[in-house]
């Protein structure tokens, strides 16, 4: 198969879809790999390293899309890329369709095969290609929140861990999954008083057992959230419903009950956000203020630490990339349930329930589109 790795062009996105080690592995299986010039530079990988591993370097993003049967990237295609995508071309990347109607309709129109990292799912319901970036974003959330709590950045002017004789900040984490767990761990390590909310009592029991004593758990409901945000200095939104929009746990009217300078970090923003007032921002312009509450809503948080993020992501994606290249997407998805669940849009049809429901589109069964593609 011919695999293409374009340079990411989303604002301040420095990750890359494949490392030189990944190229070498694909070349062992006799696949051809085209990499756009300087695609890996932001993550610390030079063109010469890709060439040494067996890749062919192409000068432009259009060249890569034109040559490749499968595109391996990190972030969803943005508007400038839509016209480059060919009918039937396999795109393996994060899509988060449920948060972008424009992207959904563009991929339907291009009749691409869109296999989304975030909905590849194992039998135990875990999301192997989302976990690494959830771990990075979760650990970054308190780090970014601590920065924006500083007064020059319009925060409350409170030190997350406090000092002897002065109480630490109160951090509220909404969601006890991968993101929430990592956020709580780092916030607690910095000395904050942390509350983790979730609707899964078994998960709350697990967290209660493994977390340090400055982390407490609480059942998540509207009443408890409304009470907790009145005294929270930093709120981390860490809610995920795979492939679907995140629910709004904090609504616009709740902002008025928060103290001026409270910081909201919505890690779920690329799935629509669990804070109603959040809208995607960039590393270049990461925050905005509504009702004196600081909103940090960067949709590609791990892009700020690309070396760590690229290695963590490609450790997880490469085995699937090799399967897709070796077998072709139809056969790979027939043989691998994880990959089949990653299919979101195929040949102009939506095949993932969460995406269809998000935009009120007809849902077609994966089996029928796979049969049509095979025919």
UniProtKB/TrEMBL annotation:
Its EC number is 1.4.1.1. NAD(+) binds at residues 134, 198, 203, 220, 239-240, 267-270, 298-301. Keywords: NAD, Nucleotide-binding, Oxidoreductase. PROSITE patterns: ALADH_PNT_2. Residues 149-297 form the Alanine dehydrogenase/pyridine nucleotide transhydrogenase NAD(H)-binding domain. One of its GO terms (biological process) is L-alanine catabolic process. InterPro entries: Ala_DH (IPR008141), Ala_DH/PNT_CS2 (IPR008143), AlaDH/PNT_N (IPR007886), AlaDH/PNT_NAD(H)-bd (IPR007698), NAD(P)-bd_dom_sf (IPR036291). This is Alanine dehydrogenase. It comes from Hymenobacter jejuensis. The gene is ald.
């Amino acid at each position: 198969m011919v695999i293409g790795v374009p340079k990411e062009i989303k604002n301040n996105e420095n990750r890359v879809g494949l490392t030189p080690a990944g190229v070498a592995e694909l070349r062992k299986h006799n696949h051809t790999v085209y990499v756009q010039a300087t695609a890996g530079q932001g993550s610390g990988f030079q063109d010469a390293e890709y060439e040494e591993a067996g890749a062919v370097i192409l000068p432009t993003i259009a060249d890569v899309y034109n040559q490749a049967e499968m595109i391996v990237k990190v972030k969803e295609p943005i508007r400038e890329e839509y016209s480059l995508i060919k009918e039937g071309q396999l795109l393996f990347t994060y899509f988060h369709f449920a948060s972008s109607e424009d992207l959904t309709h563009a991929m339907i129109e291009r009749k691409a095969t869109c296999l989304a990292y975030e909905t590849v799912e194992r039998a135990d319901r875990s999301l192997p290609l989302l976990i690494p970036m959830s771990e990075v974003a979760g650990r970054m959330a308190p780090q970014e929140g601590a920065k924006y709590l500083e007064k020059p950045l319009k925060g409350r002017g409170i030190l997350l861990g406090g000092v002897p004789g002065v109480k630490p900040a109160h951090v509220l984490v909404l969601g006890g999954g991968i993101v929430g767990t990592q956020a709580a761990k780092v916030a607690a390590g910095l000395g904050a008083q942390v509350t983790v909310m979730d609707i899964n009592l078994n998960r709350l029991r697990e967290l209660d057992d493994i977390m340090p004593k400055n982390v407490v758990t609480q059942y998540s409901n509207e009443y408890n959230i409304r009470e907790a945000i009145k005294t929270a200095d930093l709120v981390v939104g860490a809610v995920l419903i795979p492939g679907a929009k995140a629910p709004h746990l904090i609504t616009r009217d709740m902002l008025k009950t928060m103290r001026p300078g409270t910081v909201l970090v919505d890690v779920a923003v690329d799935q629509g956000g669990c804070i109603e007032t959040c809208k995607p921002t960039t590393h270049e312009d990461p925050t905005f203020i509504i009702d004196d509450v600081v909103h940090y809503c960067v949709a590609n948080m791990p892009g700020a630490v690309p070396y760590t993020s690229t290695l963590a992501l490609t450790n997880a994606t490469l085995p699937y990339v090799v399967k897709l290249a070796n077998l072709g997407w139809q056969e790979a998805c027939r043989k691998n349930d994880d990959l089949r669940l990653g299919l979101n849009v195929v040949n102009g049809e939506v095949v993932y329930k969460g995406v269809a429901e998000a935009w009120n589109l007809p849902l077609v069964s994966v089996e029928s589109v796979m049969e049509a593609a095979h025919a």
